Amino acid sequence: MQLPTQQVAVLDAASTDDPQRIEALAADTDYPPETIAGAALALEAEGLVAVTETTTTTVSLTDEGHAYATDGLPEVRLYRAALDAGADDAPVEMGSVIGAAGLDGPQVDIALSNYARKGYGTIDSGALAADPDADPENDPEADALATLTDGDSVDDDAVVDQLASRDLVTVSERTVRSVTLTEAGVTELMAGVEATDEVGELTPELLASGEWADVEFADYNVAADAADHTPGKTHVLRQAAERVTDVLVGMGFQEMAGPHVDADFYINDCLFMPQDHPARNHWDRFALSNPARIDELPDALVERVERAHREGAGDDGDGYHSPWDEDFARALALRGHTTSLTARHLAGLADADVEAPARYFSVEKAYRNDTLDATHLLEFFQIEGWVLADDLSVRDLMGTFREFYSQFGIHDLQFKPTYNPYTEPSFELFGRHPETGELIEIGNSGIFRPEMLDPLDVDGDVMAWGLALERLLMLMTGFEDIRDVHGTLCDVGFLRNAEVVY
Amino acid sequence: MPVVDIDPDELRRLTGHRSKDDDELRQDLFGLGIEYEGETEDGDFKLEFEADRLDRLSVEGIARSLRYHAGDDRGVDIPDTNAPEWAIDVTDVPADRPYVTGAVIRGVDLDADALDSLIQLQEKLHATMGRKRAKGAIGIHDLAMLKGDTVDGDGTAARSLTYTGIDPDGDTFVPLDDDAERTPADVLTEHPTGETYADLLADHDTYPAIYDDIGLFSFPPVINGRRTEVTTDSRELFVELTGTDQWTIDRMCAIICYALDARGATIEDVTVDYPDRELHRPDFAVRTKHVSHDRIETLLGVEFTTEAVVDLAERAGLDATPTDDGYDVEIPPYRVDVRHPVDVVDDLGRAYDFNDLTPRYPDVNTIGGRTESSRLERSVRQALVGLGFEDLLNFNMTSEAENFDRMRLTPDHDAVGAAQPATIAEPYSQDFTILRTWALPSLAMVLETNTHHAYPQDLAEVGFAAHADGDTQTGVAERRTVAAVLARNDASYEDAKARLQALCDEFAVALETPPTTHPSFIDGRAATIEIDGQPAGVIGELHPGVIVEHDVEVPVAGFEFELDALR
Lengths: 502, 567
Description:
The complex is a heterodimer of chains A (502) and B (567). Chain A has 502 residues and is α+β, with helices and mostly antiparallel strands. Helices cover 37% and strands 23% of the residues of chain A.
């Protein structure tokens, strides 16, 4: 039969009646021990050798143990000094005995704590008494130290344990594997065993010389764990944003971009939000102090927006019975929603004039001064989308959103009529969580009001919707705390291990 | 969104739906878009609904809506009113609160529940339409305690009250929940309710006050006098509202009158005598919106017969009269949310039930696509990931300390990242006071947060940065920035430059790195990133002071430059 070289060497070196240790075989064959161990295990698997394991215990002296083997154990030295001072007759003052014994430093405590334990005498109120019957010549611990110094082994486990607890010896266990040739091994050897040419690594030289064709490659343990590797990785929330973008582009939506800091005019007034609406003075908005006001607003647009707020739209429309002040509209803030981009696009301020039919979207940041918790951050990604066409109906809105959400595994969408200052009709969108089955709100939608569209000079109907990307990601992946993901408190380990969104 | 507590038994009694159990009631309420949020300790329903239907802020209003929804009532209902006996004479009112309205209510029978409901309605109207009493404030009084002098015999009103403005210390009265005579000014500093609403009158030279023959009895928008306090024994009420807008207070007044009418009371007109005109209130005038039949069909996506539209309107509590091309739809006075014919269409859709509509995908063809800048951003992010970087997503808001101080930088340095930041006016937290002017500080913060994780930590971000710049339209220059750090035992300038070079090669731009100095980097190990000959950013080994400041124990090399330089 053919076997790898190192296995042949092991077979040749092994015998049927004399178990050979791996280290001995390694020395005989000039291979490293780990190679021989691997070869022996491979041969054992073939039944050609038997591998036996025995565990041996080695006891070796520590530096402190060596010192006591030479100088005597501190408690024995104390006892001898005590006898010299006559403590076997009457207790003597401890300090002088310690001095006479030549003990200092930590040895003093060691001597005192072992003195009584081993029956050399008693210590009471600083006075030392010695037991005249104690036998320091036969102290088992001292004997064991001497034995170990001579290179012999100590059989009394209790004494070894005691010495180990005093840090005078270290006890180590070692597993020794020994190899014996089996009957089958003998048979194969008799039949003849040849060595194959086996290499550990494929090298450029092997490839260049063509030798690779004549060699065997050593087997690896392919089931073993490999070292950790940290790949470059797209942020999981960004992956979700890309996924949403893919879906929307596929549905014919064109991307919008625009300023994060914008005038309230575009964030609120163009959306027919009355200036005394609680949300506009509320602390949940991030107003800017520097810069605080936008300089330029399109005069004609401002005038039309103001008129819509005051008078409404159409022949018998009503406006808000609320104050409207252009200066208030000039206040700059971080956009609370990306619907400000929609306003700018519909007004023709972003691109060329937008004309029906058109679909637009953005997946971008909005800012809300909310309480931070597992589902709320001060910054979040808003998915904003809208469709401009002639004669859009509520049914078209429902069909569009049903299609969008079904791309994310959310079916049986439900529409709850709701109120929103700039849409009518308006709907909250509810869907079932794919895993928990719970009915949860997953977006807000509606058809823009004439009071919004007329001033922007839009010809046609516009239906729009928005939702937080984070909410969608939570639905898609089931992760629970947004703070692990987004922002400078993010956990790099969490991001490294986050499952890919596709 | 407003939350109102409603006694389900009251709701059963007022709707006449006496046999419905709590579950059925909850289901009916959901059909109106009113969400059940739980129960109070007394077993009342806590109901949450949208801020448009303020006529539903009371059990009476909700009962009315439920009766329409169930088909028990149809069309517009206007309560009969009796001719006025009382007048409100308006003289020398405060300039900032010039409007008043009111009504007299006779034959009320207020048990404790009904009184609670009335007080709750008043509070909820204050909180919503009344804009915390600034825009409209309601006072309700026991009419029996008022004494009006007899006016001339022209038959319009025999008794009159006066709404006027007085000196803050010009008179005294005993306010509700109090025993002492106080001036209005004293009320604002000495009475708990006065303290709450003192801000509303901060700019007033004279304070609003309502007088009868006996004297001052109401100090709107703050508090009523104790003399006219309403109790369960009150049988006749005087309702007055003051505010900054006549329409608003008239609508609030109508909502209150409708609630009391639902409990069997009789509404009596009040004359409001302004110096230049005379109004009869409450204003129960019906408004009309013209809605085209075509608009109803196109907006709802359903074909209707004329009869069907009229039926839906009546079930929404409206009245629709067919015209040539549509309908004249009458809107009852308690509806404050109907501004435009689309609001009528929404009502029709709700009466029809939107969830009975069949969704359809619109037959509208458009071409989708991304912006160029978004495509570039995605490509750079992918290239960075290919170079082994972990893509990060940090906050755009940060603090001066993080953005500047901890990076050894000031806004006045001549260095990448140094600029006047866009500043948040009233920061919620010290951690978020400005928009970041560059992104490297964010990456340093992430390194700081993650010192317990294995190195190397090679982090990158393609993100937003901004600074104040008067030459831009909004006064803020916003841009996309590319930032990266390499944190590891042997991180060096060369490691950072090798990756930057690879990135520039991928985008076919020429990179040069002439030496520079930057407070965040080690002198002699920092360079300007010049892309195609233009300065675009900075690269180098982070200054040990910056590294130690962030509790990081390994060297860090990094770079940051403007995304647009790769175009």
